[in-house]
Amino acid sequence: DGDWEVKRRGAKRASNVFEDKQDAVDRGRNLAKQKQPGQLLIKDKHGVIQTEHTYKADPEKYPG
Predict the structure, then answer these.
(1) How far is Cα 15 from Cα 57, in angstroms, rounded to an integer?
(2) Which neighbouring-strand residues pair with 5?
(3) Is 43 left (phi over 0), alpha (psi -120 to 50) or beta?
(4) 47-64 pLDDT per residue, tens
(5) pLDDT tens-digit readout, 8-54
(6) What whole-number distance in Å separates Cα of residue 6 and Cα of residue 41?
(7) Residue 45 and residue 43: Cα distance in Å, rounded?
(8) Do the Cβ atoms of 13 and 7 come closer than 8 Å?
(9) Closest Cα to residue 52, out of 38, 34, 30, 14?
(10) What is the 3-state secondary structure (H, E, C) of the chain?
(11) Structure pTM?
């Protein structure tokens, strides 16, 4: 359903846009693992966090 964006925290624009959610999650996971500690936040279309993945030490904790 729609496009899935991959954005770094604080970015105004998406670095990648995918038609498939899993492709976006895979790209986000790769980016989060490259710069550790890192987090991948998966949000729904309303901006609500569905899932949070943390790699290495938890840099920040977001309610989800």
Answers:
(1) 24
(2) 17
(3) beta
(4) 899 999 888 865 566 654
(5) 888 999 999 999 999 999 999 999 888 878 889 999 888 899 999 88
(6) 10
(7) 7
(8) yes
(9) 38
(10) CCCEEECCCCCCCCCEEECCHHHHHHHHHHHHHHCCCEEEEEECCCCCEEEEEEECCCCCCCCC
(11) 0.75
The letter for the amino acid at 54 is T
- The one-letter amino acid at 32: A
Looking at residue 62, its amino acid is Y
∠ CA 61-24-18, rounded to 5°: 140
Q: How long, in residues, is the chain?
A: 64
